[in-house]
Amino acid sequence: MNLQEVDILITAEEIKAKVQELGRLVAEDYRGRDLLVIGILKGAFMFMADLIREIDTPLEIDFMAVSSYGASTVSSGEVKIIKDLDYSIKGRNILIVEDIIDTGLTVKYISSILHKREPASIKICCMLDKPHRRKTDIKADFSGFSVDDRFIVGYGLDYAEKYREYPAICELKASVHQKQEDRDE
Ligand code: IMP
Ligand code: MG
């Protein structure tokens, strides 16, 4: 981790404890029922991999990729499916796993698309939540940490595809994204 570019907000140890807690809650909820966990690429890949190992009840996984911000730190509200699910979700209990819910537009759009495919139920699990930035009425059923309006990288989250591999949840220093945005202008 380059500590000149980021500040650590949540350490890998704190993440691990939270993911264990979320995994227990999900397992309790779905015990004895079918469960299909759907990870939203790319941001959720690390959280999803850790989370499913803490869910002690049988499950299946699938992935969906949608476009989000591009290189900017501001949501356009535009979402496009880049990779769809491999399997039908009709009659299944699905748990959507997201890295972060910011405005809520992405997860709201994904839920509405999946709703039309007639699953038995839809729930949402996110690692991070920025509740103050919400533009929709969407709420996660399982949520890790609330964060203020800061730009987060690490633990799967990127800024222009960088920093995803950092094991901690970090804030990208303003000086770093400011420099990039000045270059883009
Ligand atoms: P929303 O549609 O505004 O809720 O944004 C959700 C998506 O935007 C997430 O899946 C992330 O890919 C991305 N995103 C939102 N906030 C951040 C952030 O602070 N850092 C990195 N990506 C973010
Ligand atoms: Mg992203």
Strand order of the largest sheet: 4-3-2-5-6-7
Q: How many distinct helices?
A: 4
Oligomer: single chain
Q: Quote the average pLDDT.
A: 92
Helix content: 25-40%
- CA radius of gyration is 16 Å
Please give the number of β-strands: 9
Residue share in β-strands: 25-35%
Ligand catalogue:
inosinic acid, magnesium ion
Q: How would you characterize the largest beta sheet?
A: 6 strands, mixed
Question: Explain this structure to me?
Answer:
By secondary structure, the chain is an alpha/beta fold. It is 26% helix and 27% strand. It is built from 4 helices and 9 strands. The strands form 2 sheets. The protein has a 6-stranded mixed sheet with strand order 4-3-2-5-6-7, with helices on both faces. Helix 2 (45-52) links the parallel strand 2 (36-41) and strand 3 (60-66). Helix 1 packs across helix 2 (45-52). It starts with 5 loop residues before the first strand and ends with a helix. The mean pLDDT is 92. It binds inosinic acid and magnesium ion. Magnesium ion binds next to loops. Magnesium ion (MG) is lined by residues 43, 68-69, 158.
Task: Describe the structure in brief.
The strands form 2 sheets. The chain has a 6-stranded mixed beta sheet, with helices on both faces. The chain has a 3-stranded antiparallel beta sheet with strand order 1-9-8.
